[in-house]
Each structure stands twice: as structure tokens, then as C-alpha cells.
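Lecture 7, part 2: worked example. A protein chain together with FE2/S2 (inorganic) cluster.
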Amino acid sequence: MNAPTPAESLARPARVVPPPMAMLAELTHRCPLKCPYCSNPLELVRRSEELSTEDWARVLRQAAAMGVLHVHFSGGEPAARRDLEDLVGIAREVDLYTNLITSGVGLTETRVKELSARGLDHVQLSVQGTDAAIADKVGGYKGGFEQKMRVAEWVAAEGLPLTVNAVMHRANLHKVGETIDLAVRLGARRIEIANTQIHGWAVKNRAALVPTRAMVDACTATVMEARERLKGVLVIDYVPPDHHSVYPKACMGGWGKVGLNVEPDGKVLPCHAAATIPHLSFENVRERDLAWIWNESAAFNAYRGDDWMPEACRSCERKTVDFGGCRCQAMAYAGDPNAMDPMCSKSPLRAMIHDLVEAESVDAHPPEYVYRSM
Ligand code: FES
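Predicted complex, written out as C-alpha cells:
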């Protein structure tokens, strides 16, 4: 089932693709939180369609064999899977570095101890705010903030390195200083302060999520000051809003370059939003070997290199820095995944998007969230 067919082997071109460094293992789309910026696909995978423990074990072994170094167990909420501890154990057996990306809901002290005993290397805990009033409102889950604080204590007690993952937007950007302080108090070694990307579900909440220019400028200044002050204590990764940047981000480090995502039902995607690109179809680990999918599948090769790029990108000196930016953003705003990333200042759409988002950001009465639920 996993080996290429003879016809595939014969047809195989002499293509050398370096292996991915990381695999995002999206164990489930089930999640107790209802975040208005959820980055999962609009069409969620049901529990009955999820890969089994045996399927995931095979995928983890294939990942290690092809040269993957890190596996990020994610979701949804990966703790919703009762076999999470087993999967961490299997990943460690094959020498994968294991990271758990979690909201903390569904973990208990016993489970954190067991995960640590099975060899979990690192925990990435999301926080939606610095107190229950903001955090539980954004996450749409009462009691979530207190649970996260308990999980951070259990993680620290096990001596596991912790990263705090803070998604920032209009409701919490003014609290970025407190968010950094919270990460220090929780004993985190790193914090990722990422302004919400307006993709997928977040598009429904764009007017409620986009911060004003003044908020972003204040946030950037706070982050720069804290970076200096907390050298040696806390590493601060910072992602400003796309429409305030001059150049697009190297989304996913480049399409099919450093990472792949395995969806709960086994589909393998180059990025979390790739399914929004209608002309692509995605191979499944139930039928194909992971290395074949990475090296040979049409979806992974669609935006490698620069043949696909519009002329302005192909002749741009930054094409080896941002690899043409984000294809899903081009799809979302330009309706064409081959178009220039509309967040690039050279894109003809950039000024229009900037003005639209800026106008929404200063609306004194932003709309209520449209929460995400299964
Ligand atoms: Fe798909 Fe950026 S999210 S390429």
C-alpha cells in the first residue's frame, strides 16, 4: 500500500528534493476552544474519519525514515486523542524531536507526567489573553485560562521546556507587555507573538480582529524593548500584521521546502490552508508513502522553484528570501494562487487591501465574534 507502483517507479523523474525538517501531525480537528481566528480548514475532519493509532505509527516511522527531525503534535486539540501518549512514545522511539502544541484543555497532571515519561521534548501552550475575562471570551471557553495556568505549572514541574504561543489582535494587542510578563512568570523560554493572519475562519471575523496602526506600532515598540531587557531569559518571536509589512513572509519557509502537514484524515498538505486552492488535490497517507508524497506529488511540486511565479516575482531579488510569499493569501485576495502575494508592496492589490483593513480597524463598534465550532 505504501510502496510506489511499478509504473510510478518507472515514471519517476530524477528530482532531488531535500527532506522536510518538520512534520505537523494534526491528530484531530476536535477542539474545545472556538477561536474566531482558527487556522484549520473551513471543512473540518470528523472523528470517524481520523487516522487510527496504527496509521499514525506508520506515518511517524515513514517521517523519521525520510529525514524529518521534528514532529509537532497539533490539532484541533491533540489532547482530545486518548492515544496521544502512545504516539509521543512511538515518535521518540524513532528519534523524532517531539513538540506538543496545545490549548491545555484536556490535559491533566497525570497526562503531563505520562507524556514526559514517554519522552515528550517540548510544549507549546497557547494563551488567548492575560486574564480569564479576555482569554475565555476570545477562546469561547469558560475556565480555559485557569486550566492553562495549571498546565504551565505541571509542565514546569516536569522540567519540560515551554513556549507560549500568543495570537494577537484587536482585543489583546494592548496587553502585549503583560503577555510577555506572563510568559516569564510561567517559566517559558520562548514566546511567539503572532498577529492574526486573516485566512480561513479569520476572514469571517476580520473587522473584529484587525488592530489599528497605532496599536501595532505600540506593540512593536514594546516587543523591541522587551527583547533587549529579557536577553538570556526569554526569546521573543514577533510576527507583525501582514498588511503592515513591506514584503511578504516566506510562508511555511517556502512551499514544499521545510515542512508538511498531515491532516487528521491522512491528507498531506504543504500548508494548513492549501486546501483552499481549488486546482490542487492532495494525496493521503492511507494510500501513499509519505516520502513519495513529498517528492513526487503534484500538490507539493506545484509551487516549488520559480517557474510558476509571475514575471515581477521571478525577476525580484527577494525571491530566494520569501519564495514568492503565500499562495493561499494570493488565492484568498486575488482569486489566483499564482498571483503575486497581495501583501507584497509591489502587488497592485496591496494598497486596496491596506485601505480596507485600516478602515475596519478604526471602526469604534467592531462586530461580535463569529465563533468556530465543530
Ligand atoms: Fe498556504 Fe501560505 S498558508 S502558502
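The radius of gyration is 21 Å. The chain has a mean pLDDT of 93. Keep this in mind for problem set question 3.
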